[in-house]
């Protein structure tokens, strides 16, 4: 089910995160979030495991986990406007992936 666009976007974001000057723990947590929520198979599993495809729990978990990830950022990390833009881009990419996967799950 993975398509090339999803894989390329995830790879691009991972390269960016690994090359920007941020603290090690924050980088580790961002990579963990990316590998969890920008992975089509993971999102599909999470959506399939819920009783109702319209359940917002997967989206809420992604948003909550990104908020928790941000708590690992040091003050210096948060002064970079690029990282703040990245966090918004991560949620945007997740929402695109979520909608794509949700549309592919057959209605019960």
Total beta-strand segments: 0
| Largest sheet, strands/sense/barrel | none
How many domains? The number is 1
Distance, first to last CA: 19 Å
Kindly state the percentage of residues in helix: over 70%
Can you write the helix and strand succession as a string?
HHHHHH
Strand content bin? under 5%
Compute the gyration radius: what is it? 14 Å
Shape: globular
Structural class by helix and strand composition: mainly alpha
Mean pLDDT: 87
Question: What low-confidence regions span 5 or more consecutive residues with pLDDT below 50?
Answer: none
Oligomer: single chain
* Total of helices: 6
Task: Provide a concise account of the structure shown.
Helix content is 76%, strand content 0%.
Jot down its keywords.
76% helix; single chain; 108 residues; mainly alpha; globular
Describe the structure in your own words.
The protein starts with a helix and ends with a helix. It is mainly α and 108 residues long. 76% of the residues lie in helices and 0% in strands. It has one domain (2-104). The chain has helices spanning 4-19, 24-37, 40-49, 57-70, 75-78, 81-104. The model has no long low-confidence stretch (mean pLDDT 87).
